């Protein structure tokens, strides 16, 4: 099979962004059609109930969303294996055949999930609780924080001295974990046109694109990677705002705290800009937890960051234990010249 040659990876990225936006527009257009479905009543005082699921689910619908998720994920895992074992693992400026295939798989299954929503509505949320989807997103976030530690540090630019083999291990296997997380999340939700669903669907589609661009220089673009990382903040805040009950403060300030403590220190900002961000952050907390929220609720600010940072060290501890039990097997010592260079 002949693949197009010398296609810049940036062109693949731009085309994929346009496709993702068009899917979101198609979600909006489908709003009237989806109104025909009768949704399950929301139980009182059940914060984990997922509102967008059918009152009378069908067996055929379950086959479509579980089958779509499983096949989508398996095919993308095969492209990751292909890229890691059948390429030279150098980062290039053009799309390799594996990138074209991965992009094609994601484009196809994104369209299939859109059609699946139109005719069957339900996603995996019909069968599993919401916290599972939320945890997959948390997993992605703390792994990204760990991987970026060598470049920007974890706490106000301060780097944690993890072993180099740990980064090699993360680099080799994060693609499998991330693809599972975003594909599971994508098939978990029906593609309904609420604000939260639209931004969430756009976010996971863009992360799929990032995964498809493995071993290209675009995959390493720091501004693009930061955009994917920070998009969780408005998405989570919008979803929480729609749910009510004050959860918006926990998500908004939780991810804002991670930005102030960790993420902004990888953007090359001047010190005065960082101080300005920090001052604005502290002033907003002071106003919120004196005028809008009870002062004792200020612990909302650290709930999400505490989980993320603890999970980083827990993951490192588990890796250390496994590495020692395995006597630092060869796959944990693989050379990684790109990561050693700080990308």
Write the topology of this structure.
Layout: H1 9-29, H2 31-34, H3 59-86, H4 97-120, H5 130-147, H6 149-152, H7 164-188, H8 195-212, H9 222-230, H10 232-243, H11 247-261, H12 271-292, H13 300-325, H14 337-340
Helix pairs in contact: 1-4, 1-8, 3-4, 3-7, 4-8, 5-7, 5-13, 7-8, 8-10, 10-11, 11-12, 11-13
How would you describe what is shown here?
The chain has one domain. The protein starts with 8 loop residues before the first helix and ends with a helix. It has helices at 9-29, 31-34, 59-86, 97-120, 130-147, 149-152, 164-188, 195-212, 222-230, 232-243, 247-261, 271-292, 300-325, 337-340. α1 (9-29) packs parallel to α4 and α4 (97-120) runs antiparallel to α8. With 343 residues, the chain is mostly helical. The protein has 14 helices and no strands.
Number of helices: 14
Percent of residues in helices:
55-70%
Q: SSE order in H/E notation?
A: HHHHHHHHHHHHHH
What is the averaged pLDDT score?
90
Tell me the number of strands.
Answer: 0
As a percent range, the share of strand residues is: under 5%
Structural class: mainly alpha
**What's the gyration radius in Å?**
21 Å
Unreliable segments (pLDDT under 50, ≥5 consecutive)?
335-343
User: Between the first and last Cα atoms, what is the distance in angstroms?
Assistant: 33 Å
Shape: globular
Counted up, domains total 1
Main beta sheet strand tally, sense and closure: none
Regarding quaternary structure, how should these chains be classified?
A: single chain
